[in-house]
C-alpha cells in the first residue's frame, strides 16, 4: 500500500516536522545543545475552574506586584529573540485571564516566536475577531483541557458545571478559523474506563489531536502545598488492566483514522508510573523503563512561574527571579537557576518530585535512549518498533486523507 504514496506527500512530511523539530533535537542530544528549545510561562495564578487535581483550585493568593506584567512578558520575548528561541508556551492558571495575552502573542509573533496557549476553554469562545485574527496570523497552537465528553465527569474533574459546554464552543470557534487545537486529557480514576469512547466521540466532533497524561501527584506549583491524597486520584492498580485495554483500543483506532494521540508514547511507561504512584512498587519509576536516565527537560525548557521565578524544572521551586538582576539576561539567570538540579541529575541524585514527573517523561525516555543507546538497548528496541509503526501509520493516514472522501460531517 505504501508504494502508492506520492513523493510530494512524503516530502512534505519529511521536511515539516522532521526538519523543524526532530533533527535539531537529535543534534542537541547527540552533539550539543547550544540553547533551550522553548520557554514556558505561567502567565497568571488566577483561574475560573476548580479542578480536583490542581493546587490552584484551592490555594490562590494575590501575587500583588510579584505578578507577571505585560512588560515582563515583552522582556522575556525580547530575550528569546536575541537568543533565537522560537517557541513559547503560555500556561497558567488560566492564561486567557491574563489581560494582555493577545498583545503577548502579537508581540512574540512580530519577533518570529510562535506561541502555544494551554487553556481550560472557559472564555476562549468569547474571543473577538481581532484576537482570533492575531492567533491565525501568528500560527498560534491552542491546547484545550477536556477530561471527558460526558458532562457529569467533566464537571466533576474540572470542578465547574459549564466546563464542557464552554470548551466545545471554543473548539468550534477556533476550528472555524482553522486554528489548530489539541485536547489535553488528564487520566484519572474518574475517566479511565471510558477513554476509548471519549476518543470515538472526539473523532466524531472533528477533534484531531489528543494528549493524555496521568495525574501528577506532586504539587503542580511547588510554591503551593500539594493537594491531600492526590496520588489516589490516579487509576487504582487493580484497574490497570481496564486502562491498558482502553489505551490499546485507542492505539488501534488511531492507526487508521484521522485522529492522533500520544498513547504510543505513554504505553511503555504508564504502568510503572501508576504502580509507583500507588506505592505498590518502590524506587524510581523511570529506572524500570530505562537503565540510564537522562532528563532532557532541564536543558530544553526555561520554566517561568506566575511570580516571575525561574524554576529549575516545572516541579521544582523557583530559585531565581526575573525581576531581579534583569541586566544579566534570561539565559544567564536560567543557567543559575538550573545549575544545581542539572548537577544532581547527572550524578543520579534524583529528587523526590522526579517520581511524579509524567508530563515530560515521554520526551525524557526518548532522550535517554538517544543519549545512552547501549545502556538502554532494550528500551531502544521497544521504542524503535513503536516509532516505526507510528511513522508508517502517519504516512498511511496522509495517503488516506489525500485519496479518500471525508467520512465525517465535520
Ligand atoms: C495546569 S493547567 C494550566 C492551563 C489551563 N488552566 C488548563 O487547565 O488547561 C495545564 C494542564 O495541566 C493539566 N493538569 C493540571 N493538574 C494536573 C495534574 N495534577 N495531573 C495531570 N495533569 C494536570 C490540566 O488539565 C491542563 O491540561
Ligand atoms: S488545571 Fe487549569 S483550569 Fe484547572 S484549576 Fe488548574 S489552572 Fe485552573
Ligand atoms: S521532575 Fe526530575 S525528571 Fe522531571 S523534569 Fe524535573 S528534574 Fe527532570
From TrEMBL:
<dbReference type="InterPro" id="IPR013785">
    <property type="entry name" value="Aldolase_TIM"/>
</dbReference>
<dbReference type="Pfam" id="PF04055">
    <property type="entry name" value="Radical_SAM"/>
</dbReference>
<keyword id="KW-0949">S-adenosyl-L-methionine</keyword>
<dbReference type="InterPro" id="IPR058240">
    <property type="entry name" value="rSAM_sf"/>
</dbReference>
<keyword id="KW-0411">Iron-sulfur</keyword>
<dbReference type="GO" id="GO:0046872">
    <property type="term" value="F:metal ion binding"/>
</dbReference>
<feature type="domain" description="Radical SAM core">
    <location>
        <begin position="33"/>
        <end position="254"/>
    </location>
</feature>
<protein>
    <submittedName>
        <fullName>Coenzyme PQQ synthesis protein E</fullName>
    </submittedName>
</protein>
<dbReference type="InterPro" id="IPR050377">
    <property type="entry name" value="Radical_SAM_PqqE_MftC-like"/>
</dbReference>
<dbReference type="InterPro" id="IPR007197">
    <property type="entry name" value="rSAM"/>
</dbReference>
<keyword id="KW-0479">Metal-binding</keyword>
<dbReference type="GO" id="GO:0051536">
    <property type="term" value="F:iron-sulfur cluster binding"/>
</dbReference>
<dbReference type="InterPro" id="IPR006638">
    <property type="entry name" value="Elp3/MiaA/NifB-like_rSAM"/>
</dbReference>
<dbReference type="GO" id="GO:0003824">
    <property type="term" value="F:catalytic activity"/>
</dbReference>
<keyword id="KW-0408">Iron</keyword>
